[in-house]
C-alpha cells in the first residue's frame, strides 16, 4: 500500500498588523520525513526530525508545538520525537493505519503563527505471533477409514500483522500417519485440515497427539506458534477373538470315568473400545475320538469381558494312555464372535488354539516276556566268562507309559548250578532286550557229563510300584562238544631228552613219547608222527609213541640232534614235543682254537672287556673240560685270567681280576696302550694235548672326568661405553681325560642370563662385549649375570657351569635435562638491583655430571606492556637487565622500567662439563620474566607460597589413578579477602599434559598415571595463574615430586635354576648363585633370598648375595636322594614390619647330586654254604653270587673274583655273572670243605670292594650208602617264582642222583607244611602250583623234597627249602582313608609355585611293583595345578584369580609305575582316584567399584536428622571380609528446580557411615530445597588406597511429589506388602520409562470420618526416564485405575482403592504409629494452666498447630 501524505499549509496574518512586518514561513515542516511512513513500535524519545521556520529569514524567537498524543516537540529547538509507542494493530481500522500530526510555528513578538497537518502511514512490524482459534482441538478417525480420508478441518490460524508478516504456512511436526493441508480463508486467516495417509490400528494405539505449526512469512523475524491436536482412533470390528491363556493344558488320569469336568477355557472379543462387547462362543475342533465337549455360557465373567466354556469329558469316553496317543491327547478349540446374545449368528471373526490333555499314567499293565515263557537254546561248550548265550534274545515289555510303572527288574531266580549265569541288563524301562551272560565258564564243560544241560528260571518284576506285578520264564540250555582239548604229552612236558652211544645199532629202543586227549569219540583219538630235518634218524609208533633208532650215529659228525614229535587228535588239534638226542663219544683228539689271534678293548679303570672275550676251542671227541692258562704277557699281579665259560667246557672267558682295572701306565713300554697275551689250551687226555693263541687287549680312554671350572664364579667391571669386542674375562676349565681330540677337548657356550649382552669364544673362553653402548644402568641396573657352560667332546658329553657377574660403571654419556620446559617469574618494577628473580634447575642421570648454567645471549627478547616486541635498548637496556650465574640463579642488574619493558624472555642453557660421549651435552629451557606494577591487589596464594618464593612442592606417590586430586590452590585478593575463582595453567608449563586444572576451584588433578620407574624426571611442574575480579594476577609454580612405592615385584635373571653338585661337596664350598633385580628404589628395591621346599635345610642360601652351598655340618648323599626341587624366593623391602608391604617372586630351583664312588658293593646271597657230591660233572654251576651297589654308572657295576682258597683250581667264578662252577672232575679228590674268599668290586675310581667267605663242601658218594641224594634244590635255600601264575605252572625241577644206578626209575616226592598247595611230577621232579599263589596273602611256602629209587630206597636227608613269591603289580594303588566326597584344600589366590598339600596312596605290592606316580586327570584344563609325579605333592603353578573362579574339582589319579596284572585282588577302579576340591582363598586384590556412575535417591523434605537416604551401591569382586571399605563425603552441591542455584556448595547436607556405606541426612529439614537435587560425591577407599567414586543424586520431595495408593488393609499389613506392590507396578510401567520408589506407609484419614484403622496410605515417588520427579498429574495417565487391565488386576490383588497425594502429616507412619499432630488443642489447654512453667512450649504448640492446619487442608483435596 502506498502511503498518502496530505499537507495543508495555512498562512495567517494577525489582524491589524501591517504587511510590511514580513512573513513567517516553514523551512522544514517534517513532511518529507514521513513521506514513506513510520514503523510501529518506535521507542519513546526517538528523535524523528527538526522543525524549522523563519521570520524574515531569521529563526530567532520562533517557537514550536505539536498537536498529537503520539509526538513531542522541543519548543525552542523544534526537535520532534516520539511521545509514546504506536502499535499498528491497536489503531482504529477505519483510519486505514494512519495517524494525524499537526505542527505549529509561532513568532511571538509579532503574534504570528503557521501550522502544517501531516497524515502519517504506520508501517507494520512483525511483532505478533500467529494465533489458533477455537482451541483445544480434538478429532477422531476410525481405524477402518481408508487412506485419503479428511477427518478434521477445525484448525484455524490468524495473524494480526499485515502483508507478508500475516501470510501463514501450516505444517505438521509429528504426522507419521497424517497429512496437513491448508486453505486461505482471508488475508490473514487460514484453515488446516488433517488427512489420513497411513492405516491406524486401534489395538496398537488408541490416540495420537499431532503438533501443528503456524509460521508467518517474515523475511527478517519470522514468528510461529504450535498447537496439539488429539486424534482419537475409533475401534472397528477387525480383530478375531483372543484367548486368556495362550497355552491351554488340562490333566486327567487314564481310564478315568469319575471326573468329567477338566477346567475352563476363556476368550473375548479381540477388539477394544466400543467394539469390545461382542459375545464369543467356544467349539471343539478335530477331537480325535470325540471324547470332549464344551458346556458354554454367553454370560461374561463377573467384571470381565471374557466368555467361559467348561471342558467336559463325554459320558462313556475313556482315555487309555497305552492305546495309541501316549502322554498327550491334543485337539483344537475355536473361539468365534457372534453378533449378539439374541443374534447368535457366527461372524467370520474366529481364532483357534491348541488344547493339550496330559493323560496321567496308572499301573494297569503286567510286565511280560514277549516270546516266553519257555526258551530252548543249544550252545557250544566252554564259552568265555561274560559271553552272551547266542540265539537267545529275551524281549521284555511293560506297556505302561511312565518309568514309575514300567521300570522292571530282571533276575535269575534259579538255575541248575548257582552263579553260572546272569541276566543283563538287570533293569529295563518300558521295553528292552535282555541277554544271558556266562559267569562261570567252568560249568560249561562238555567233558563233564553233569554240566551238559542247564535249566535257568528268570523273574521279571516291577521295580517301583506297590503292586509288584511280575512274570517268569524258563530257559533250557544244552551244550554241544567241541574240539577244545589238544593232545598232551605225559607229565605235561613238551621236552624229552635221551642219550645214545654212537655204536648203538638201528632199531635200538631210544624211549617213549606218548600223548593223550580228553575229548570224546574220534576227537580224542591221537596219532604220533615225527618232523624236522633229523626225522629220518628215528622212527615212531603212531599209536604208542615208541622211538627207535633208524640210522647209525657218528659222534664225530654230529654230537647231538633233535626231532619233533607231533601228536594230532581226531579234530585236527595237535601238540608237539621236542626230543633231544645226545650222541656219546670217547676222548681221542687234541683241542684247537677257532682263531689264531683274538682282540678286545677295555676302558681304563674298568674290568669289563668290550666285547667280552671268549676263547673258543674245539675237540671233537673229548668229554672233559679244557684248561686255559696265560703263558706270557700277563701283568705282575696276574691282572688277567681265563675261566671256563658257563655254556661250554671247551670255551674260556678272559676276565680281569684287578678290581680297579688298568691305567695307561700299566701297559708295557712301547705297546702304545696294549697288552699282548699268549694263551695255552690243554685237555686232560693221556697224553694231554694243547694249542696256543695270541690275545691283544687295547686300553681305551673313557670320558670319566668332566670339565672343571676353577673358579666357579667370575666377576668383571666395565663402563657403559665399553666397545664391542672388549674382552672382560677369560674363563678356564680343565679336563683330566687323556684323549685330546674328544674327552679332553673343551668348548665354551653362553647358557643363560644376559646372553644378548656378551659373546664368548668357544675355544678360548674369552668373554667379550657384544655391542658398543649396549648398557644403560639407569634403565637396566648395574649388575648383569651370564652363565657359561664348558662341555667336552666325549660320549656321553660331560659339562660344568660357571657364573660371570658383570658390574657396569656409569659413564658420562647422557644429556642433562631441565625439570621444566618453561620458567615464569614475576618481579615488581621497583625491585632493587641485585635482587633474586628466581632460579632454574636441571639434572643429569650420569653420576659424575657437573652442570653449568648460562643464558644464550642471542635468545633474549622483550615486549612492552602492550605486548609489542621491543627492539631498542633505550630507554631500558633489556639485554643487560638480568644475569644468570653458573648455578642457575637469576638476579636483577638494572632498575626495572615497566613502561618500556613489561616482559623479558630468554633461553637458559645447561651444560655438563664432565661430558664424555658425546663431548658436548646440553639442554635448554625457556625463561620468562614478567615485570609488574606494585599493586596491593595482586592475589596471594595460600602458604607455603610466598611472593619471594612463589612455588609449592607436592610429594605424590606413583601410580595414582587419573582424576586424583593433587592439590587445591587457594588464592585471594589481599585488599578485599575475596577468594579467587579464576585460575588457568600457563600454556607450555605443563609439558607432559600431566595435569587438569579446575578453573573455578583451583583443583589440580592427575591427567595420566605416572610411573616412577619409567621416568628420568622424577619431578614435574606446572605454572598456575590466579586472576582476581580486579584483573590482577599472580603465578604459582607447583612442583609435583613423584615418590616411589613398592609396585614392582623382584625379577630373577633366569626363569629357573638348575645346579649339578657332586655329593661330596661340603660347606663352605659354593656351587650356585641366584640373582634377582627390583625396579623399585631404596628399601623397595633391596632384596633378600630364601629357599623353600622339602630338604631346604640341607642347603644354605645367602640371603643377601644369593650364593648357594651345603649347610654347615651337612653331608649330601645321592643314594638317599638324588634330586631336590625347591622354590627360591626373592623378597623386597626387608625392613618392612609386615608382609603386606612386601612383594616377592618365586622361581623353581633344582639341585641334582652327581655320584661319587662312596659305596662298596654288598653281597645279596642268602647263604654262603653249599654242598656237592664228588661225582658232579665238570662245568656244573654250584652257586651264583649276586651283589648290588647303590652308586650309579660305572661306580655301580660289580665284578666278582676269587681272591684265595682256590689254589688247586677246582673252581671257576664268572667275573660278570657271579656263577661259580666246578672246573674239573672231583672224583677221587678228598672229601672236604673248601673255603673260598670271594670279592665283589665296583668300577669306580678308586674302586671299592667287599670280601666274603664261601664254603663249598665236597661229599663222597659212599656217604649215601646207595640211597638217592637230592642235588637240587639246595638245603635251606629259597627259590623265587612269580605270584599269580596260572595254576599248574611249573616252578622248579627237583634233581637227584643215585650213586648205584642210572637214576632212570627214581620217584620224586614232596612234603612239608605247604605241600598241599603244590604238586610234583613223580617222574620228572617238576613242582607246580595247585592253588592260586598271591604274595599279598602269603609270601613264602615251606617244602621238603625227597626221592625214592627203583629198589625202594629213599633219601636219607630230605632237603628243606622254600618257595618265595616274586611280586607282580597286581594291585592298583589306593588312597588311604578316601571316600566318595572330595578332599577339600585351600590355596590363596594370586600365588604360584607353592605347595598345597601332599596326597599319598599305598600299594600292597612291594618294590618295584609298588612304585607310584601321580597325575591330574580332570579339572585342570587351565593348567593352574601340578602334582609331583613321584611325590604326590599338589602345587599351584600359575596365579589363580578367585574372582574368575573360586573352586576347582580335581581328579587326582595314582598309577602304578608298572602295568597292573589283571588276575589279582584288584580294588575297585575308583579307589585309585581321589577327588580334590581346591577352594581359592580370597585376598584383597581388587578395589571398590561403583555399580553405576550416578545413583538416584529420593528424600522427603520433612525428614529428621540422620534419616537413612540410601545404601551406596558399591561392590568389590573380593569377598566381603576383604573389602575394608571406608566411605567419606567429598562434596555436596545443590541445584534448585528453577536452576537459580546450580551446583551451589551444600557442605554438611549429608553424611555417610564410614564403614556401612549408608548415606544419611545431615540437615534438620529440607523444606527450602523442595524440588531440587543434591549431587553428593562419595569417595570409597580400601586398605590399599584403591578408590572409587559414587555420585548420589538425591531428589527432595515435597507434598506434590509424593503420591499414594490407598489400600484396604491395616498399616501393619500394608507395610508387609508395600515394597512388593511398588516393585510390581514398576515392572509393569517400566516400558513407559517410569520408576516408582517406595517412601512409607501411613494410616489413612479423611475429613469426613477421620482416621480409618483398616485403610492405609502407601506413599511413593515417581521418576521419569531421566530420573526427573513427576507430579501426580504427569503420572496419572499411566498409573491411574482403568488405564490398564493388567494394572487393575494388580490393584485388585493388593486392594488398591485409589491414587492421590501422599499427606506428609499422616496419623500413622512406619516409625511412629500414634502421631501427636491431632492433639494441638490439648497442649494449648495445658499451656494455659502451666504457662508460668512452660513458656518454652508455646513455640512448639504453634508449630504443631500449623502442621495440623496444613494436614486438614491436604485432607480436603484427597
TrEMBL record:
> Where is it mostly found?
membrane
Q: What does the record say about its membrane topology?
A: Single-pass membrane protein
**Subcellular compartments:** Membrane
**Cleavable signal peptide:** 1-22
- What Pfam families does UniProt report for this protein, alphabetically? Cadherin (PF00028)
UniProt GO BP:
homophilic cell adhesion via plasma membrane adhesion molecules
Residues annotated as transmembrane: 1719-1745
UniProt-recorded Gene Ontology molecular function terms:
calcium ion binding
Q: Which InterPro entries match?
A: Cadherin-like_dom, Cadherin-like_sf, Cadherin_CS
- Residue ranges of domain Cadherin in the record: 30-132, 133-243, 244-369, 371-489, 492-593, 594-709, 710-818, 819-941, 948-1052, 1053-1163, 1164-1270, 1283-1375, 1379-1490
Q: Which GO terms describe its cellular component?
A: plasma membrane
UniProt keyword annotations, A-Z = Calcium, Cell adhesion, Disulfide bond, EGF-like domain, Glycoprotein, Membrane, Repeat, Signal, Transmembrane, Transmembrane helix
Specify the protein name.
Cadherin domain-containing protein
Amino acid at each position: 500500500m502506498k502511503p498518502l501524505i496530505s499537507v495543508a499549509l495555512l498562512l495567517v496574518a494577525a489582524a491589524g498588523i501591517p504587511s510590511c512586518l514580513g512573513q513567517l514561513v516553514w523551512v522544514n515542516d517534517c513532511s518529507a520525513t514521513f513521506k514513506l511512513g513510520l514503523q510501529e513500535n518506535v521507542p519513546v524519545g526517538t528523535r524523528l526530525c527538526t522543525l524549522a521556520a523563519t521570520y524574515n529569514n531569521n529563526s530567532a524567537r520562533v517557537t514550536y508545538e505539536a498537536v498529537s498524543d503520539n509526538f513531542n516537540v522541543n519548543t525552542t529547538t523544534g526537535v520532534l520525537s516520539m511521545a509514546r509507542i504506536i502499535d499498528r494493530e491497536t489503531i482504529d481500522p477505519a483510519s486505514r493505519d494512519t495517524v494525524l500530526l499537526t505542527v505549529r510555528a509561532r513568532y511571538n513578538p509579532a503574534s504570528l503563527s503557521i501550522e502544517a497537518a501531516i497524515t502519517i502511514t504506520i508501517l507494520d512490524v512483525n511483532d505478533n505471533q500467529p494465533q489458533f482459534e477455537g482451541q483445544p482441538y480434538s478429532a477422531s478417525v476410525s481405524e477402518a477409514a481408508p487412506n485419503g480420508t479428511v477427518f478434521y478441518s477445525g484448525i484455524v490460524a490468524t495473524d494480526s500483522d499485515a502483508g507478508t508478516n500475516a501470510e501463514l504456512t501450516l505444517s505438521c511436526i509429528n504426522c507419521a500417519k497424517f497429512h496437513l493441508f491448508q486453505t486461505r480463508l482471508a488475508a490473514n486467516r487460514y484453515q488446516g485440515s488433517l488427512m489420513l495417509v497411513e492405516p491406524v490400528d486401534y489395538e496398537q494405539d488408541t490416540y495420537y497427539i499431532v503438533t501443528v505449526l503456524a509460521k508467518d512469512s517474515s523475511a527478517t523475524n519470522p514468528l510461529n506458534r504450535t498447537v496439539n491436536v488429539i486424534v482419537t482412533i475409533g475401534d472397528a470390528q477387525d480383530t478375531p477373538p483372543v484367548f486368556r491363556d495362550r497355552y491351554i493344558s488340562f490333566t486327567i488320569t487314564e481310564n478315568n470315568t469319575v471326573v468329567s469336568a477338566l477346567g475352563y477355557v476363556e476368550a473375548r472379543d479381540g477388539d477394544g473400545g466400543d467394539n469390545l462387547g461382542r459375545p464369543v462362543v467356544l467349539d471343539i475342533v478335530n477331537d480325535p475320538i470325540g471324547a470332549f465337549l464344551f458346556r458354554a455360557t454367553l454370560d461374561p465373567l463377573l467384571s470381565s469381558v471374557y466368555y467361559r466354556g467348561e471342558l467336559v469329558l463325554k459320558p462313556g469316553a475313556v482315555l487309555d494312555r497305552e492305546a495309541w496317543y501316549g502322554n498327550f491327547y491334543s485337539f483344537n478349540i475355536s473361539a468365534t464372535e457372534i453378533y449378539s446374545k439374541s443374534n447368535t449368528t457366527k461372524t467370520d471373526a474366529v481364532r483357534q488354539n491348541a488344547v493339550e490333555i496330559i493323560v496321567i499314567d496308572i499301573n494297569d499293565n503286567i510286565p511280560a516276556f514277549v516270546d516266553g515263557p519257555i526258551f530252548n537254546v543249544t550252545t557250544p561248550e566252554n564259552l568265555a566268562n561274560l559271553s552272551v548265550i547266542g540265539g537267545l534274545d529275551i524281549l521284555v515289555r511293560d506297556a505302561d507309559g511312565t518309568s514309575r510303572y514300567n521300570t522292571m527288574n530282571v533276575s535269575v531266580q534259579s538255575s541248575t548250578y548257582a552263579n553260572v549265569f546272569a541276566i543283563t541288563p538287570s533293569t529295563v524301562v518300558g521295553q528292552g532286550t535282555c541277554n544271558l551272560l556266562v559267569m562261570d565258564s567252568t560249568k560249561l564243560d562238555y567233558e563233564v557229563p553233569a554240566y551238559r544241560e542247564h535249566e535257568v528260571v528268570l523273574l521279571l518284576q516291577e521295580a517301583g510300584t506297590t503292586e509288584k506285578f511280575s512274570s517268569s520264564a524258563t530257559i533250557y540250555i544244552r551244550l554241544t562238544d567241541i574240539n577244545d582239548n589238544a593232545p598232551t604229552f605225559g607229565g605235561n612236558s613238551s621236552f624229552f631228552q635221551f642219550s645214545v652211544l654212537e655204536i648203538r645199532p638201528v632199531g635200538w629202543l631210544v624211549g617213549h613219547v606218548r600223548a593223550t586227549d580228553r575229548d570224546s569219540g574220534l576227537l580224542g583219538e591221537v596219532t604220533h608222527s615225527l618232523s624236522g630235518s633229523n626225522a629220518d634218524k628215528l622212527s615212531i609208533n603212531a599209536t604208542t609213541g615208541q622211538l627207535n633208532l633208524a640210522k647209525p650215529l657218528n659222534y664225530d659228525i654230529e654230537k647231538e640232534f633233535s626231532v619233533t614229535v607231533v601228536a594230532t587228535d581226531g579234530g585236527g588239534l595237535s601238540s608237539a614235543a621236542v626230543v633231544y638226542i645226545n650222541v656219546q663219544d670217547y676222548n681221542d683228539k687234541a683241542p684247537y682254537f677257532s682263531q689264531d689271534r683274538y682282540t678286545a678293548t677295555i676302558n681304563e679303570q674298568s674290568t669289563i672287556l668290550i666285547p667280552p672275550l671268549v676263547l673258543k676251542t674245539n675237540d671233537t671227541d673229548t668229554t672233559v673240560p679244557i684248561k686255559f692258562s696265560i703263558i706270557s704277557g700277563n701283568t705282575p699281579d696276574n691282572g688277567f685270567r681265563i675261566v671256563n665259560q658257563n655254556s661250554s667246557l671247551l670255551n674260556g672267558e678272559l676276565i680281569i681280576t684287578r678290581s680297579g682295572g688298568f691305567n695307561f701306565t700299566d701297559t708295557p713300554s712301547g705297546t702304545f696302550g696294549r697288552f699282548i697275551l699268549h694263551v695255552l689250551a690243554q685237555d686232560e687226555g693221556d697224553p694231554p694235548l694243547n694249542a696256543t693263541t695270541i690275545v691283544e687287549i687295547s686300553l681305551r680312554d673313557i670320558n670319566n672326568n668332566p670339565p672343571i671350572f676353577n673358579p666357579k664364579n667370575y666377576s668383571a667391571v666395565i663402563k657403559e661405553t665399553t666397545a664391542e669386542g672388549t674382552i672382560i674375562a677369560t674363563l678356564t676349565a680343565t679336563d683330566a681325560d687323556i684323549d685330546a681330540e674328544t674327552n679332553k677337548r673343551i668348548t665354551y657356550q653362553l647358557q643363560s642370563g644376559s646372553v644378548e649382552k656378551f659373546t664368548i669364544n668357544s675355544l678360548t673362553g674369552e668373554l667379550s662385549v657384544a655391542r658398543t653402548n649396549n648398557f644403560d644402568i639407569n634403565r637396566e641396573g648395574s649388575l648383569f649375570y651370564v652363565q657359561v657352560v664348558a662341555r667336552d667332546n666325549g660320549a656321553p658329553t660331560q659339562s660344568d657351569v660357571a657364573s660371570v657377574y658383570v658390574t657396569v660403571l656409569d659413564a658420562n654419556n647422557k644429556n642433562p635435562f631441565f625439570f621444566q620446559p618453561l620458567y615464569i617469574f614475576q618481579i615488581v618494577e621497583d625491585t632493587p638491583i641485585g635482587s633474586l628473580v628466581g632460579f632454574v634447575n636441571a639434572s643429569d642421570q650420569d653420576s659424575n655430571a657437573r652442570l653449568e648454567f648460562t643464558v644464550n645471549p642471542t635468545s633474549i627478547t622483550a615486549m612492552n606492556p602492550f605486548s609489542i616486541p621491543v627492539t631498542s635498548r633505550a630507554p631500558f637496556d633489556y639485554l643487560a637487565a638480568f644475569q644468570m650465574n653458573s648455578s642457575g640463579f637469576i638476579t636483577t642488574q638494572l632498575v626495572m622500567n615497566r613502561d618500556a619493558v613489561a616482559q623479558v624472555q630468554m633461553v637458559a642453557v645447561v651444560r655438563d662439563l664432565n661430558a664424555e660421549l658425546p663431548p658436548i651435552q646440553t639442554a635448554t629451557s625457556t625463561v620468562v620474566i614478567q615485570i609488574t606494577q606494585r599493586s596491593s591487589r595482586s592475589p596471594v596464594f595460600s602458604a607455603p607460597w610466598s611472593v619471594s618464593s612463589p612455588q609449592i612442592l607436592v610429594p605424590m606417590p606413583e601410580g595414582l589413578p587419573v582424576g586424583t586430586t593433587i592439590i587445591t590452590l587457594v588464592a585471594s585478593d589481599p585488599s578485599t579477602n575475596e577468594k579467587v575463582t579464576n585460575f588457568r595453567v600457563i600454556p607450555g608449563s605443563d609439558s607432559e599434559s600431566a595435569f587438569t586444572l579446575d578453573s573455578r576451584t583451583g583443583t589440580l588433578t592427575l591427567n595420566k598415571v605416572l610411573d616412577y620407574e619409567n621416568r628420568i624426571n622424577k619431578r614435574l611442574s606446572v605454572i598456575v595463574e590466579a586472576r582476581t575480579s580486579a584483573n590482577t594476577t599472580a603465578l604459582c609454580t607447583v612442583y609435583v615430586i613423584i615418590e616411589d612405592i613398592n609396585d614392582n615385584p623382584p625379577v630373577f635373571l633366569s626363569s629357573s635354576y638348575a645346579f649339578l653338585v657332586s655329593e661330596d661337596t661340603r660347606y663352605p664350598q659354593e656351587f650356585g648363585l641366584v640373582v634377582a633385580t627390583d625396579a623399585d628404589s631404596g628399601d623397595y628395591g633391596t632384596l633378600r633370598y630364601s629357599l623353600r621346599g622339602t630338604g631346604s635345610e640341607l642347603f644354605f642360601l645367602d640371603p643377601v648375595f644369593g650364593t648357594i652351598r651345603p649347610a654347615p655340618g651337612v653331608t649330601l648323599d645321592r643314594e638317599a636322594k638324588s634330586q631336590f626341587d625347591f622354590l627360591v624366593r626373592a623378597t623386597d623391602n626387608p625392613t618392612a614390619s609386615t608382609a603386606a608391604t612386601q612383594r616377592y617372586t618365586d622361581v623353581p630351583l633344582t639341585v641334582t647330586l652327581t655320584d661319587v664312588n662312596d659305596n662298596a658293593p654288598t653281597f645279596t646271597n642268602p647263604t654262603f654254604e653249599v654242598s656237592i657230591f664228588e661225582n658232579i660233572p665238570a662245568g656244573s654251576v654250584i652257586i651264583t653270587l649276586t651283589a648290588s651297589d647303590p652308586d650309579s654308572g660305572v661306580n655301580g657295576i660289580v665284578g666278582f673274583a676269587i681272591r684265595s682258597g682256590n689254589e688247586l683250581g677246582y673252581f671257576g667264578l664268572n667275573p660278570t655273572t657271579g656263577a661259580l662252577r666246578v672246573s674239573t672232575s672231583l672224583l677221587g679228590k678228598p672229601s672236604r670243605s673248601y673255603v673260598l674268599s670271594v670279592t665283589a668290586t665296583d668300577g669306580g675310581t678308586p674302586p671299592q670292594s667287599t670280601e666274603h667267605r664261601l664254603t663249598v663242601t665236597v661229599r663222597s658218594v659212599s656217604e649215601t650208602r646207595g640211597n638217592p641224594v637230592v642235588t637240587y634244590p639246595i638245603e635251606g635255600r629259597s627259590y623265587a617264582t612269580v605270584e599269580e601264575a596260572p595254576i599248574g605252572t611249573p616252578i622248579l625241577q627237583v634233581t637227584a642222583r643215585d650213586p648205584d644206578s642210572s637214576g632212570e626209575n627214581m620217584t620224586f616226592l614232596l612234603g612239608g607244611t605247604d605241600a598241599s598247595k603244590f604238586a610234583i611230577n613223580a617222574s620228572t621232579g617238576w613242582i607246580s602250583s595247585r592253588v592260586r599263589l598271591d604274595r599279598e596273602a602269603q609270601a613264602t611256602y615251606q617244602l621238603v623234597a625227597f626221592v625214592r629209587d627203583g629198589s625202594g630206597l629213599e633219601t636219607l636227608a630230605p632237603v628243606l627249602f622254600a618257595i618265595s613269591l616274586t611280586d607282580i603289580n597286581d594291585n592298583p594303588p589306593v588312597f588311604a582313608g578316601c571316600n566318595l566326597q572330595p578332599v577339600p584344600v585351600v590355596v590363596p589366590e594370586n600365588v604360584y609355585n607353592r605347595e598345597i598339600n601332599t596326597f599319598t596312596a599305598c600299594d600292597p605290592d612291594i618294590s618295584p611293583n609298588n612304585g607310584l606316580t601321580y597325575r591330574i586327570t580332570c579339572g585342570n584344563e587351565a593348567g593352574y595345578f601340578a602334582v609331583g609325579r613321584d611325590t604326590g605333592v599338589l602345587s599351584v603353578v600359575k596365579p589363580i584369580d578367585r574372582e574368575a573362579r573360586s573352586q576347582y574339582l580335581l581328579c587326582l589319579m595314582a598309577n602304578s609305575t608298572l602295568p597292573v596284572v589283571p588276575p589279582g585282588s584288584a580294588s575297585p577302579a575308583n579307589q585309585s582316584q581321589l577327588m580334590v576340591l581346591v577352594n581359592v582363598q580370597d585376598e584383597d586384590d581388587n578395589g571398590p567399584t561403583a555399580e553405576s556412575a550416578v545413583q538416584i535417591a529420593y528424600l522427603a523434605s520433612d525428614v529428621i536428622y540422620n534419616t537413612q537416604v540410601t545404601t551406596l551401591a558399591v561392590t568389590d569382586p573380593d569377598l566381603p571380609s576383604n573389602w575394608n571399605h571406608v566411605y567419606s563425603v567429598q562434596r555436596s552441591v545443590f541445584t534448585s528446580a528453577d536452576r537459580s542455584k546450580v551446583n551451589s556448595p551444600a557442605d554438611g547436607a549429608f553424611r555417610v557411615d564410614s564403614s556401612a556405606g549408608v548415606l544419611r541426612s545431615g540437615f534438620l529439614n529440607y523444606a527450602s530445597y523442595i524440588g531440587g537435587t543434591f549431587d553428593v560425591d562419595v569417595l570409597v577407599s580400601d586398605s590399599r588406597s584403591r578408590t572409587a567414586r559414587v555420585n548420589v543424586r538425591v531428589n527432595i520431595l515435597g507434598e506434590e511429589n509424593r503420591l499414594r495408593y490407598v489400600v484396604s488393609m491395616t498399616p501393619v499389613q500394608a507395610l508387609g506388602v508395600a515394597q512388593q506392590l511398588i516393585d510390581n507396578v514398576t515392572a509393569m510401567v517400566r516400558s513407559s520409562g517410569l520408576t516408582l520408589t517406595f517412601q512409607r506407609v501411613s494410616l489413612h484419614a479423611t475429613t469426613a470420618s477421620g482416621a480409618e484403622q483398616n485403610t492405609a496410605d502407601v506413599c511413593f515417588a515417581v521418576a521419569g526416564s531421566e530420573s526427573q520427579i513427576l507430579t501426580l498429574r504427569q503420572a496419572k495417565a499411566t498409573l491411574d485405575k482403568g488405564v490398564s487391565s493388567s494394572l487393575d488386576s494388580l490393584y485388585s490383588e493388593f486392594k488398591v482403592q485409589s491414587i492421590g497425594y501422599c499427606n506428609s502429616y499422616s496419623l500413622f507412619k512406619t516409625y511412629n504409629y500414634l502421631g501427636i499432630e491431632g492433639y494441638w488443642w490439648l497442649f494449648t489447654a495445658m499451656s494455659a494452666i502451666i504457662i508460668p512453667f512452660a513458656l518454652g512450649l508455646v513455640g512448639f504448640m504453634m508449630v504443631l498447630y500449623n502442621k495440623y492446619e496444613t494436614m486438614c487442608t491436604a485432607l480436603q483435596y484427597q
